[in-house]
Specification:
The protein is built from 9 helices and no strands. The chain is elongated and about 80 Å long. The protein has one domain. The model has no long low-confidence stretch (mean pLDDT 83). 15% of the residues are buried. The chain is mostly helical and 261 residues long.
Length: 261
């Protein structure tokens, strides 16, 4: 009797957990799709790619007898597949790696800007905002890819009845997949909310603060702006832009003439 009650209790918990995670996921998707439907497509595309690749690799491995009836690897190739799955769903290590690479790219520029800016020789920071955007997208990609790979493993495990000996592993895997999917889209919504907040702050920042920041930046880059090599480089860049614009106008006019003819 106690086992039956415990089983029903687990089922109720799973259903409640599923509904809760699906609600958060759907709310996030509904909010994002209003202005950024492509972002939804990108995340689902990443999920689909890793699901298909993982499922294909797992199916071929099972067909070639790389795993036993309980899902344990029989040889080194099976162990390698398990290790690859572990790397795919190791989000913590992926986040640390991505953050380290971005920080290693940004921090030297910031430190250099501060030190050289004291003497008025600082250069403009390069690719900072885009690097932070890339970091966010890589982290969200990690959640999407992990959920796709784990979903493929879950489907294969159900088909091969690997969860028969360990039902708790089935519940854990199922819950983790839903959690990863929820985090993928909720973090995507958080990313766009942060972008909106940044725009709001830029619009409502006091003019006195803007003027102070502008003066500070102008002083930090004073000698860089007046350097002869930078002046000549800016002139060459302006010339290239004017030439490209003139070429585009000429091509546009020729195309219209051909159309009229």
């Amino acid at each position: 009797m106690e086992e039956i009650i415990s089983e029903y209790k687990n089922i109720i918990i799973m259903i409640t957990w599923t509904i809760f995670l699906l609600m958060i996921t759907c709310i996030s998707i509904f909010q994002i799709r209003k202005k950024h439907p492509t972002a939804i497509s990108v995340m689902t595309g990443i999920f689909s790619i890793f699901f298909c690749l993982s499922f294909l690799v797992g199916a071929i491995a099972i067909y070639n007898g790389r795993f036993d009836e309980n899902g344990n690897p029989r040889d080194k190739i099976g162990e390698m597949i398990i290790n690859l799955l572990g790397l795919t769903i190791d989000i913590k290590m992926a986040m640390i790696t991505y953050a380290f690479l971005v920080i290693a790219f940004i921090m030297p520029q910031v430190i250099n800007y501060i030190i050289s800016g004291v003497f008025g020789c600082a250069k403009n920071l390069f690719f900072i905002r885009r690097s932070i955007d890339i970091l966010f997208w890589l982290i969200m990609k990690s959640f999407a890819s992990a959920s796709g790979a784990l979903s493929a493993f879950y489907v294969i495990a159900l088909y091969c009845n690997w969860f028969a000996a360990n039902s708790k592993l089935s519940i854990t895997s199922y819950s983790l997949i839903l959690l990863l999917i929820m985090i993928t889209f909720s973090s995507l919504l958080f990313y766009y909310e942060i972008k909106n907040m940044e725009t709001f702050i830029r619009k409502h920042i006091p003019q006195s603060v803007k003027a102070l920041l502008r003066k500070t930046h102008n002083y930090a880059t004073k000698y860089q702006r007046n350097a002869p090599e930078n002046t000549s480089f800016r002139k060459r860049r302006q010339f290239v832009r004017l030439a490209a614009t003139a070429w585009w106008v000429i091509e546009r006019v020729n195309h219209e003439d051909e159309t009229d003819a």
